[in-house]
Amino acid sequence: MEEEWLLLAQRGEEEAVNRLVATYQQSVFNLCYRMLGEYTEAEDAAQEALIKAVMHLHTYDPERPFKPWLLRIASNECIDRIRRRKPTVSLDGMGDDGAWEWQAGHSPNPETEMLQHERQAQIQELLGSLPPLDRSIIAMFYWEGLSYTEIGEATGLSVPAIKSRLFRARRVMAQLLVEEGVYVA
Amino acid sequence: MLRDPISDMHSEAWWMRALDGELTCAEERAWQAHLAQCPSCRQEWTALTQVETLLRTATPPPLLPDDFTARTVTVIAQKQKLRAMLRFIVGFVLFALVAWVGLGYCSATLHELVQTVGAVIASRQILFAALMRTLVGLALTVKTFLPLIAGIAVALFLFLMPNSVLATVAMVRLSQKRQARSTAA
Predict the structure, then answer these.
(1) Is ipTM beyond 0.90?
(2) Stretch B85-102: mean pLDDT, rounded?
(3) How many angstroms away from the CA of B34 is the closest CA of chain A?
(4) Are A33 and B61 inside 8 Å of each other by CB?
(5) Is residue A157 situated within a structural domain?
(6) A142: CATH
(7) Which pLDDT belongs to residue A105?
(8) Do B16 and A105 touch (CB under 8 A)?
């Protein structure tokens, strides 16, 4: 079924393109958000990644899974954006607009909201300590539910390399937790 | 059976297997016993499991705005139109270029052909004029020498005429002369 409308989207059918965007936009945005840590920039990156994906659909091999292919484009877009950033820009926490978005969330309980915000900021801080590719691997593994093989498809790395990078990334984050005293013995 | 339990447990491969829950029951028991005895491993393991918990229980990123799909699809449609237009323009320019080169080549060839035909026609006229002049000259030359040519022709005629004919002519002339003399007498 998905193959059919992907094929239609490849031919430029607006309805199929609409469906493709609607189906994958949140996954793409989630990855961008985890990698960039800022709502507005993540939204821009997600839109750019989706546009690039649709414009380059003719290069997609229907024999391979679509989601890793799409997330690879999103990941590359985010890596480019991170590289273009000035070195002084910090990745810790969300930006002002991100924090505002979070505070204007759905939870009626301000304390829960605040706690979630803090945890979110903590995760972003931990992710910010990693190289962009590792951030992308972490996001795909934990939040997009991709298997090692699919992450390999998305990043172009082998499964042992993915496992190793994933472990080292977690170790870096664990060390950061210990250094910051967040770690509870 | 563990080959070298302590060095195995301090290896990256072991930690990766432990984090992924891939240890056997015996290995798990040995691992827990080791953690109880080794403070540095215990601290790192606790921090790692905290990171694991933090990542697995992270709140999902905020949702995209409702108009995101429509905005993205609109941009994609615009880009597709632009691409189609660019393709048309590039195609048209290429066609025009090929046509221009082709027409230029054809024009040069046609020009050469016209020149050749013109030269042929001019040559024919020159040849015709020369022929006419030659014929006229010949005619004039023939007119000047006409009495001589006629004399030669008569002489040749007479010279080549059979004797019997000459004898007959001579007899006729002689008899005419005698008749004329007798009439006069």
Answers:
(1) no
(2) 93
(3) 16
(4) yes
(5) yes
(6) 1.10.1740.10
(7) 46
(8) no
Q: How far apart are CA A61 and CA A68, in angstroms?
A: 12
Query: Which residues of chain A are under the pLDDT cut of 50?
Result: 88-106
**How large is the average pLDDT for residues B139-144?**
75
Domain carrying residue A14 = 2-180
Residue boundaries of the structural domains of chain B: 5-56, 90-144, 145-184
Q: Please tell me the total count of domains within chain A.
A: 1
Contacts of B130 by beta carbon, 8 Å cutoff, 6+ apart: none
- The reply to whether A108 falls in a domain is yes
State how far the Cα of B173 lies from the Cα of B181, in Å rounded to an integer: 13
> Of A67, A24, A62, A63, which is closest to residue A46 (Cα–Cα)?
A24
Quick one: CA torsion of A114, A131, A134, A126, rounded to 10 degrees?
A: -20
d(CA B123, CA B125) in angstroms, rounded, equals 5
CB-based contact A33 B50, cutoff 8 Å: no
Averaged pLDDT for residues B29-48: 91
Tell me the two tokens of residue B2: 């563990």
User: What is the percentage of chain B residues whose pLDDT exceeds 70?
Assistant: 96
Residues of B in contact with A102 (CB under 8 A): 62
